[in-house]
Amino acid sequence: MKLKLNVWRQSNNSDKGGFVSYNVEADEHMSFLEMMDVLNEKLISEKKDPVAFEHDCREGICGTCNMVINGRPHGPQKGTTVCQLHMRQFKDGDTIAIEPWRVDAFPIIKDLVVDRSSLDHIIQAGGYISVNTGQAPDGNAIPIDKEEASAAFDAATCIGCGACAAACPNGSAMLFTSAKVAHLGKLPQGKVEHKKRVQKMVAQMDKEGFGFCSNVGACEVECPKEISTENIAMLNRSYLGSMMSTND
Amino acid sequence: MSLNSNVPNGPLAEKWTNYKSKMNLVAPNNKRRLEVIVVGTGLAGASAAATLGELGYNVKAFTFHDSPRRAHSIAAQGGINAAKNYQNDGDSIWRLFYDTIKGGDYRSRESNVHRLAEVSADIIDQCVAQGVPFAREYGGLLHNRSFGGVQVSRTFYARGQTGQQLLIGAYQALSRQISNGNVEMYNRHEMLDVVKIDGKARGIVTRNLLNGKIESHAAHCVILATGGYGNVFYLSTNAMGSNVTAAWRAVKRGALMANPCYTQIHPTCIPVSGEYQSKLTLMSESLRNDGRVWVPKTIADAEAIQRGEKTGLDIAEEDRDYYLERRYPAFGNLVPRDVASRAAKVACDEGKGVSKTGLAVFLDFASAIQRYGKSAAISQGISDPDAGTITKLGEKVVEEKYGNLFEMYEKITGENPYKNPMKIYPAVHYTMGGLWVDYNLQTNIPGLFALGEANFSDHGANRLGASALMQGLADGYFVIPYTLGTFLSNEIRTPKFTTDAPEFKAAESKVKENVLRLANSQGNQSVESFHRRLGKIMWEYCGMSRNAEGLKKGRQMIRELREEFYRDVYVPGSDTEYNPELEKAGRVADFLEMGEVMMLDALNRNESCGGHFREEYQSTEGEAQRNDADYTYVAAWEWDDNEPILHKEELNFENVELKTRSYK
């Protein structure tokens, strides 16, 4: 299949950047990133600068790859990261626009590569359970309801890619933050610190420059792990509750 | 050089307990004065950095990724073993120890493996406390499943994403220490050299991948937890960025690379579909709990499938060869990985492969779907269910167990695995070899430690499923926090090192020189093309089966390729900017040396054991033949540009009798 790609090129954060068009020949069994590899091999053979993009596991789990394809974070296929998107989703002759995540809290490094350290900072603010190595009781000491454990798991599948913020017109990281709050807050081990955690993580999210949530719901639609906005509702309830509660 | 494993005396089951209670400790006030560098933030590195931070050491952690959470441990699917015996099926520390020794084909160190089995149960407790959402029963207790090479259910899992959940647990523990100020985190920094002062590892040189700046970092000791070298094969289940560079640069400074020829070829991966392929995707071993592996009995049927005239569904039950069940009735589809992979190769070599390329076998869930469907119908009180109902109910059960894997298979291949049997083929997955370490996980360079897949210590010649996660976390959470004290307790009066020392300056300028040499390479071929060619040489001559002639040829070909690489590689961009091609060039340069040592090691080992299968050494039935009299040793290689030097550590088996491994 013959494709025309309009790729965002930007040499660094202070560069203005713009779209550059390339023609590339692909095979329907290729993954999207393998198609990008073909483009880069072609550019290198012409001694031109290859397109910088991030990727690693190519199995949809590490959360490294990030491209906005035809206006949609991770492209058109539901519940799929760019690396798992295959060219059979496109047609011969298609024109495809490829851009980086565009979020204030994710500064552009080069071309399609952005800095997502802000997500790490949110976790560092409280996205953990305070238990030192060696302090744990027996794994079966606290039975956990299967459904509850499963709900915590659904939230814990977040891969930290940042598509939620890229999809959000406000550039909000509420889905990311709430997924962690829900993962830990639904488990008995995580309940102890729940209120403090919510406050600290929300404060950090604001500090990093993410926007506010106005219940658009695009984050859930574009999330490659299909994480539910119900987590945001839980976060909001917990946040409000923690502000009104008297103990610290 | 004599290799002292520093294994403590005493009975096997008491070694670790006694050693721990008597080893020298570092007091809290002294811990505050000591600095530790941890390179790599996967399961081993993140758990080590977090735990050492909790203990009060000053830790600096490094990753070449943009975040510690991206490490490739995240992609582990199936599970983590622990001798909890929650299932009351006869499991014990001894049995986990014995299974691991046997699974490793008697080529690992008894004492290290026993310690691993001992701490396995603590890992599960720790992870549960951190909030890892393991699978549970309806009663709320932890659930287990079975993996290859064992006859008990001791594998804990979190759907098909166990590695992700465990890594997030370790990442969160690490994040907590970063926020407490106990760990200083350096993202997007690649380690390019180890710095030794008076023979001891005292720091590293890194390249900041955002701006190319070469920086030195000093500490009292250095821990490498930088993973395996499977990407030397180009196509593997490893992440694109996984590399041997940190470990290899340590080798260039005198560390020994042990058993490099022990590589694990995983039997259940999605087959290669074309020349453009950049990586291979694993289908978890857990699928072999329910999937049955087969090929057609006749070559005629196989060829019809290869030509696209028939599919698996057209082959009648009596015309199928469930070759694992036939050859290994005791373990059936759950034989260890090396055995299953070789059997698949034998079937395909006979011409019975089931894809266009002839390099695939079926993994079929039809009978599991029927079995689960019938049992679901009974439990739902449906009497006399029709075939359609049974299939529907059965598919639902299979979806609950393996849904995400089936979905991934369909995304990649475009085929529905509920309706058609999956096609699978072996692929490079894990490397048992790694930096040589003693009982303390210390390399032959004092102060330089290696954890997780980066060391060679626990899996012998073949790793059992669900044991990589166990080893990574055992090393990081429960071993290094103790054994590091054996080195650091003698360093409490050593003042902090500064990077002004001439050793740092010398290392920095050497690193700069190497980086510039690559950055200024203006040849005609891409880095990727060299990597691809190296991978083909490795797979052809040092892959699933090897022979002396091929290994000699392969070694020569690698040397020639290396020479061509430095003569004709093209690296775009400069060394002072974000430049992924330059990063890759450095890693491929290291693989071009590592590959040669693997060939040498495979050539030296005149026996077949575990993942190392030498065609000259097999039984008439095609089973691997070990040579215990001559090769019961660890082969540890010292790098030399002309002729790497072999050092041996004899393996002493005091508790286990060496037997021919049988899964029949």
Residue-averaged pLDDT of chain B: 96
Shape of chain B: globular
- Separation, N- and C-terminal Cα atoms of chain A: 61 Å
SS field, number of helical segments of chain A: 9
Main β sheet profile of chain B: 5 strands, parallel
Tell me, what's the shape of chain A?
A: elongated
- Largest sheet data of chain A: 5 strands, mixed
Strand order of the largest sheet of chain A: 2-1-5-3-4
Give the beta-strand count of chain B: 21
N/C terminus separation of chain B: 41 Å
Strand percentage of chain A lies at 5-15%
Mean pLDDT of chain A: 96
Structure overview:
The complex is a heterodimer of chains A (248) and B (664). With 248 residues, chain A is an alpha+beta fold. Chain A folds into 2 domains: 2-99, Ubiquitin-like (UB roll), CATH 3.10.20; 117-244, Orthogonal Bundle (Fumarate Reductase Iron-sulfur Protein, Chain B, domain 2). Chain A has helices at residues 32-45, 117-124, 146-156, 163-167, 174-185, 188-191, 194-207, 218-222, 230-244, and strands at residues 2-9, 18-25, 68-69, 72-73, 95-99, 108-110, 113-114. In chain A, the strands form 2 sheets. A 5-stranded mixed beta sheet of chain A has the order 2-1-5-3-4. In chain A, strand 1 and strand 2 form a beta hairpin. In chain A, helix 2 (117-124) packs antiparallel against helix 7 (194-207), helix 5 (174-185) runs antiparallel to helix 7 (194-207) and helix 7 crosses helix 9 (230-244). Chain A is elongated, with a radius of gyration of 20 Å. The model of chain A has no long low-confidence stretch (mean pLDDT 96). Chain B is α/β, with parallel strands linked by helices. Among the domains of chain B are: 269-276 and 283-425, Succinate dehydrogenase/fumarate reductase flavoprotein, catalytic domain (Flavocytochrome C3, Chain A, domain 1), CATH 3.90.700.10; 505-639, Fumarate reductase/succinate dehydrogenase flavoprotein-like, C-terminal domain (Methane Monooxygenase Hydroxylase, Chain G, domain 1). In chain B, 39% of the residues lie in helices and 14% in strands. Chain B contains 18 helices and 21 strands. Chain B has helices spanning 12-22, 28-31, 43-55, 93-103, 110-130, 162-180, 245-252, 299-306, 323-327, 337-349, 366-379, 387-413, 468-488, 502-519, 527-542, 548-568, 580-604, 628-631; strands spanning 35-39, 58-62, 80-81, 155-156, 183-186, 189-197, 200-208, 214-218, 221-224, 257-258, 263-269, 292-296, 320-321, 361-364, 422-431, 434-435, 448-450, 525-526, 569-570, 633-638, 645-650. Chain B has a 5-stranded parallel beta sheet with strand order 5-2-1-9-17. A 5-stranded antiparallel beta sheet of chain B has the order 11-15-14-12-13. A 4-stranded antiparallel beta sheet of chain B has the order 16-10-20-21. In chain B, a hairpin with a 2-residue loop joins strand 6 and strand 7 (200-208). The longest helix of chain B has 27 residues, at 387-413. Chain B is globular. The interface between A and B is large, with 77 and 79 residues.
